[in-house]
Design goal:
ten-stranded antiparallel beta sheet; 31 strands; 16% helix; Jelly Rolls
Length: 719
């Protein structure tokens, strides 16, 4: 039964029964009442990662293969590794800069399976002042995989790092380059013909792009934190331009693509690919910044070098290619107001999004480990990529309580983890995946249920068989008088809200949030909305009579009118504790002009590939023809169907469910240009409308939650 008195329940479609799984140890926190203490009262703290009830977790002959526990299958027996940098020639004459790391001093001299990281973010860097080098071999990833007998390759995309050529972000040509790169790796004497890829965000995109070209040696990929649809996933979630991310991203890329050097800010140029003077030093291959601007390009040609030795200026010329040819992502993306608008090179978002590479990746049938995070901006994409491609590709999904990287955000500490050890958990799962599909080790990984997810405030890590969960039941709450969420529809009524353009969903001392997290600014404390709700229209349930697990995609249906003819809407699902403090659970948004619903299969090449996109979620098209220019004109009452980012959260007994509604989220999102022409929340010429949320049988504004009925599970305390 769902928590008493709370909501109407709807039976879901039939599905397979999930296999349960993860035991955990719990501990309640007490002590001084700080903000941390207040937030801790939102749930019991998970301290263990013990896994039980998993028949494929092998424990024999000293071998163990289970989530985050892996022993005896792939031992770290290589003590050292070699490092080499070089160029990989491409068919069109450009060259990709690569670092090669080959295991040494172990039981074999190779060849080895290879893990490739294909990046626009500088494969390695060098400090021209000290000569210090940071590369993949020195990273925690390198120190983990190289001893286990994996060669590793880090490669700069064309137009980035030390590679030649120019770049428009996400152009399909990068996929072709990726195939050529994998083909080159497979021909090297230190490669055994098996290549896998890993990496997050842009490096996740590069994996799908490369896989879509089906290089023979590419046997598996592990893309982390990427959307399916690039337009609503990154450029304009809900149709509203994501200016906060783009400002950070474009500023960062402008610095690193020009190989600038700002030592006080920790910004270093990419390590060159060729030691032109052959002296074994890399710092002297970077031209001297003669005027101290941080940019050696503005000193003119020919460049000068610290040692005065003659060179062919390979590094300088590659960097000059970037300067002359690269397109600034924010400048062109800010003009892409629709999914079918073309970029400077003539591509639409259908061509450049991960969705554009899904057909080819599905045709490849290679195994995929999809890695997301409940508070990542691309979490919907993680679930869509998994659910859509699992019919053709052996697929896994790993969902931790993180932001835009496995070990980011405040929830790890909140749930009792030592964040310094969290990355090792992720690497262990990667190792089990790569051992199975690159080395062919029968470690049972492929026999486990495909989903490993963290149930926040609940039992912690748990296996599931499908997404959405087959046993979910829809629970509906209606907006009611007194700003209540009610189990039954109340008397006809309406609630007004004066739009506040200064509402800002940033949290913590660093003003981070889900969307800024894409630019690696995750909040440094839990996302409290207690004060922010003063700027919103709020509806709150009665206290829970028992714990209630919500796992899946919540959906808001708002029937709205406005005193202005357009508007943007941002909705927040929150957990309110007994003291009245409210913490964010998940969120969503929509520009009212995109209120019409469309077939979500159109996310992939406008539907031309006839691939069924799963799960079935509200989709608003986002093409030019889908935008209603004045949705609220003539006092129209419009239904807005808004899906929240997926979540898995337990509302504890005595807590309340809350939804808050805002019509601005500045500066994370741009303000609606019709209402704030200057994109300034305090401008005198702003038109701040009053919106009305209608609630009646004709206009049933409501919140739908995917409730997971409680199952009794055996739990054991992990050691």
């Amino acid at each position: 039964m769902p928590p008493a008195r709370h909501a109407r329940m709807v039976e879901p479609r039939r599905g397979r029964t999930p296999l349960s799984c993860v035991g955990s140890a719990f501990n309640e926190q007490s002590g001084k009442r700080t903000m941390k203490h207040v937030i801790l009262s939102f749930g019991i703290i998970f301290l263990g990662i013990g896994v039980i009830g998993v028949t494929t977790a092998v424990a024999q002959d000293g071998k163990v293969s289970a989530p985050f526990k892996y022993e005896g299958y792939s031992n770290d027996r290589y003590k050292t590794h070699s490092t080499r940098s070089t160029y990989v020639p491409l068919a069109d004459g450009e060259k990709l800069a690569v670092d090669l790391f080959i295991p040494q001093d172990g039981p074999s001299n190779g060849p080895f399976p290879v893990i490739l990281m294909y990046t626009p973010y500088c494969r390695s860097n060098v400090d021209p002042g000290t000569g210090e080098i940071n590369d993949l071999g020195q990273s925690e990833r390198g120190r983990f995989f190289l001893p286990h007998g994996y060669a590793m390759v880090a490669a700069d995309m064309r137009g980035t790092g030390a590679s030649t050529g120019w770049l428009q972000d996400f152009m399909p040509k990068l996929a072709d380059d990726g195939k050529e790169l994998v083909d080159w790796i497979a021909k090297q004497p230190w490669c055994d013909g098996n290549v896998g890829m890993m990496g997050d965000s842009y490096l996740g995109w590069s994996q799908l792009a490369t896989a879509s070209r089906r290089p023979t040696a590419l046997k598996c990929i592990a893309p982390g934190v990427i959307p399916l649809d690039g337009f609503t996933g990154e450029v304009a979630p809900g149709g509203v331009f994501l200016q906060g991310f783009f400002e950070m991203f474009s500023s960062y890329m402008d610095v690193i693509l020009h190989n600038r050097y700002f030592p006080k800010r920790g910004i270093r140029p990419t390590k060159p690919a060729v030691d032109e003077d052959g002296d074994g030093e890399w710092a002297d291959e970077v031209p001297v910044d003669q005027d101290g601007s941080g940019d050696f390009l503005d000193d003119g040609f020919p460049p000068k070098y610290r040692d005065g030795n003659p060179r062919k200026h390979l590094y300088y010329k590659a960097t000059l290619d970037h300067h002359k040819g690269n397109y600034n992502y924010m400048k062109w993306a800010s003009k892409v107001h629709f999914a079918d608008v073309k970029s400077p090179l003539g591509y639409t978002m259908y061509d450049m999004s991960p969705s554009g590479f899904v057909p080819g990746t599905m045709a490849s049938r290679i195994p995929i480990l999809n890695i997301g995070g409940w508070f990542d901006g691309f979490s919907r994409g993680t679930t869509e990529l998994f659910a859509t491609m699992r019919a053709t590709n052996p697929s896994k999904m790993l969902m931790p309580p993180s932001y835009h990287d496995f070990n980011t955000g405040p929830f790890w500490a909140h749930f009792g983890y030592d964040k310094s050890k969290v990355l090792r958990m992720s690497l262990t799962e990667h190792l089990r995946f790569f051992d199975r599909y690159l080395k062919g080790i029968p470690n049972g990984y492929d026999q486990e249920p495909p989903i490993l997810m963290y149930v926040m405030n609940g039992e912690g890590w748990r296996f599931e068989n499908e997404w959405p969960l087959a046993r979910e039941k829809k629970v509906t709450y209606f907006m009611d008088s007194g700003h209540r969420l009610a189990s039954n529809m109340g008397a006809d009524g309406a609630d007004e809200y004066k739009v506040d353009f200064t509402h800002d969903s940033s949290y913590g001392s660093n003003d981070g949030n889900r969307w800024k997290g894409i630019g690696m600014v995750s909040p440094d404390s839990l996302p409290s909305r207690t004060d922010k709700n003063q700027q919103c229209l709020v509806y709150t349930s009665v206290p829970m009579s028992e714990d209630m697990e919500v796992t899946g995609h919540p959906i808001m249906r708002l029937w709205v009118s406005s005193t202005e003819d357009d508007g943007d809407f941002f909705v927040f699902l929150e957990d309110v504790n007994e003291s009245g403090e409210s913490v964010l659970v998940t969120e969503g948004g929509l520009r009212a002009g995109f209120h019409g619903l469309r077939d979500n299969d159109r996310m992939i090449q406008a539907g031309s590939e006839r691939i069924e996109v799963l799960p079935e979620l509200p989709w608003h098209g986002y093409e030019q023809a889908d935008l209603a220019d004045a949705p609220f004109a003539n006092n129209a009452v419009v239904e807005l169907v808004i899906d929240f980012a997926p979540t898995s959260w337990v509302f504890k007994k005595g807590h309340q469910i809350r939804v808050s509604i805002a019509c601005a989220d500045y500066p994370t999102f741009v303000l609606n240009s019709k209402l704030s022409p200057d994109n300034n929340p305090k401008a005198e010429n702003n038109l701040a409308p009053t919106i009305t949320v209608h609630r009646s049988a004709e206009y049933p504004s409501s919140l739908e939650l995917p409730w997971i009925p409680t199952k009794k599970r055996t739990q054991e305390k992990s050691e």
